Amino acid sequence: MSARRAKSRVVRKEKERLMRQTILFGGLAVVVTLVFVFLILPGFIRLVDSFLDNSNPFETSDTIPPQIPVFNPPADAVSESKLSLNGFGEPESEIVIMLNGPEYARTVVTEDGTFTVDITLEEGENIIAAYAKDKADNESAVTRSYIVTLDKQAPLIVVDSPQDGAEIVSRANQNLEIKGNTEVGSRVFINDRLVLPDSEGNFRYTMMLKEGNNEIKIKAEDKAGNTGEAALSVKFSL
């Protein structure tokens, strides 16, 4: 009888020990689960998000500068202050236009690689250059500089000979030499015939006079397209 009771006490104690272990392990499991859910899992999610955000090398590690812009060369001289610049560049890059030194304007290159921007020139020489800037703030080298002269003045024409209203006689003088000077670089037209002045703007042209009045019209056109005119009349008789 005593042996049976002793065995029963042993079994009861073993059950109690197993019960305590079960409760202990259950509590540990709950604690581990809570730590995983509230600490480890959020940290893991943040780590994955950070990795995915930085997985695109073009957003965080693009150090290659964009293509240097290429201008369609503007005219050397113009008579209008408004000038439209156009050219080519890396698609979607930003073109920074510099006028006479400082930044003047910005424009974005289209998907087909072209860009256009309007600028307002100052009287006289204007120095134009540009560079490109991409979305990663990389900057290209600066383009070559273009000099555009804004000239609104008509070229002056000075006629040295003949004098307006001159009377010329004798067949020996029928071939009349017209001499004068105008703005350097201009083209000269005498009675619609092209005459090219020398490096100092001097021009000369010989025309055959007809009897009676001879009208002489002289027009000079400078590099900017401005025109100046002069007119004189001479009378010829044999």
Question: What is the subunit arrangement here?
Answer: single chain
How many strand units? 16
Mean pLDDT: 86
* Strand neighbour order, sheet with most strands: 2-8-7-4-5
The H-and-E topology, N to C, reads as HHEEEEEEEEEEEEEEEE
* CATH C-level of the largest domain: Mainly Beta
Assign the structural class, choosing from mainly alpha, mainly beta, alpha/beta, alpha+beta, or little secondary structure: alpha+beta
CATH topology grouping of the largest domain: Immunoglobulin-like
> What's the alpha carbon Rg, rounded to whole Å?
45 Å
The CATH architecture category of the largest domain equals Sandwich
Helix-strand layout with pairing:
Blueprint: H1 2-53, H2 57-60, E1 70-71, E2 77-78, E3 82-88, E4 94-99, E5 103-108, E6 114-120, E7 124-133, E8 146-150, E9 158-161, E10 167-169, E11 175-181, E12 187-190, E13 193-195, E14 202-208, E15 212-221, E16 227-237
Parallel strand pairs: 2-8, 10-16
Antiparallel strand pairs: 1-3, 3-6, 4-5, 4-7, 7-8, 9-11, 11-14, 12-13, 12-15, 15-16
Q: What features would you describe in this structure?
A:
The protein is α+β, with helices and mostly antiparallel strands and 238 residues long. The protein folds into three domains: 2-55; 70-150, Sandwich (Immunoglobulin-like), CATH 2.60.40.10; 158-237, Sandwich (Immunoglobulin-like). It is built from two helices and 16 strands. It has helices spanning 2-53, 57-60, and strands spanning 70-71, 77-78, 82-88, 94-99, 103-108, 114-120, 124-133, 146-150, 158-161, 167-169, 175-181, 187-190, 193-195, 202-208, 212-221, 227-237. Strands 2-8-7-4-5 form a five-stranded mixed β-sheet, with no helix packed on it. It has a five-stranded mixed β-sheet with strand order 10-16-15-12-13, with no helix packed on it. A hairpin with a 2-residue loop joins strand 12 and strand 13 (193-195). The chain is rod-shaped, with a radius of gyration of 45 Å. 14% of the residues are buried.
